[in-house]
Amino acid sequence: MNVSELSFGTWAIGGAWGATNDTEALKGLEAAMDAGVNFFDTADVYGDGHSEELIGKATKGKEEEVHVASKFARGGDINDPNTYSKESVTAYLDATLKHLGRERLDLYQIHCPPIDILKDGSVFQVLDDLQKEGKIRHYGVSVETVEEGLECLRYPNVKALQVIYNIFRQKPAERLFPQAKKQGVGILTRVPLASGLLTGKYTQETTFAEDDHRNFNRDGEAFNVGETFAGLTFQKGVELSSSLQWIKEERGTMAQAALRWILDNDDVTCVIPGFRNEKQVSDSLEAVSVPSFSREEQEKLTKFYLEDVEPSIRGGY
Fold first, then answer.
1. To which CATH superfamily is domain 8-194+253-290 assigned?
2. Active-site annotation holder among 46, 108, 202, 305
3. How many Cβ atoms sit within 10 Å of the Cβ of residue 104?
4. End-to-end CA distance of the chain
5. What is the distance between the alpha carbons of residues 257 and 240, in angstroms, rounded to a whole number?
6. CA 87 to CA 99: how far, in whole Å?
7. Tell me: the pLDDT tens digits for 98-109?
8. 46 is catalytic
9. How far apart are CA 238 and CA 40, in angstroms?
10. Would the pTM count as exceeding 0.90?
11. In degrees, to the nearest 5, what angle opens at C-alpha 49 toward C-alphas 157 and 197?
């Protein structure tokens, strides 16, 4: 399955990023497709299916050319083995397909399960069965840690791993990415802008809406803290981002530069920034055409990560 190197995640248009606007979201989806984007990532818990419904509406009649990935498990108890039974997974999948208005899903991902579930492996047999039934084309796993990703690679039919990867979160590139590439497994990189820190627009006084995960999950109160600000405290993240202003020189904005840095890694299949409107889609797409980072710049960013960032990351990675 060939997907556009810069595609989009749809958590923000489903919910948990403050106020949503369906009209603006649909315009953004249309703009992305008009620009050649052929892949969108979602999950059944993004707005309790609302994100899936928006994608279904926007891609109606384009089911063959526009690929969709969704996820399951977070709608139940992720620690309960019954959540991953054939009955449960089929129910999750049927609901997703109904929201999307599709008969088959291109990529179905387990949504950040505990490593014990991955080691048990029963869920992969369930996914094999659903694949044989023609309800899913491929399957993969969205993981929180490198260890979880490597565990997934023990299963031959896992075809994609979704990981947190950005300038503030470089560890997956060391061992996980090369091994995935060796096995022909796609890498989808999420949280590419560290929940907005890598736009360079935040200050220590910036606040977020009550229903925005950058408020309610700031310290991991709702789910893994790595999903919010890449595991950094907001204060530390703002401090670190202020020292990265140099990356935007000749690259438009800091956000475009941060996305370009990910695209420069040949082991990455695609990066999936979020969006809420057409302008954010257009701005992100510009990252494809801005200049790549030189070897010296990449070495500088690696040193910055190891010395200034890594010691402050929380959440296990």
1. NADP-dependent oxidoreductase domain (3.20.20.100)
2. 46
3. 17
4. 28
5. 15
6. 19
7. 999 999 999 999
8. yes
9. 29
10. yes
11. 80
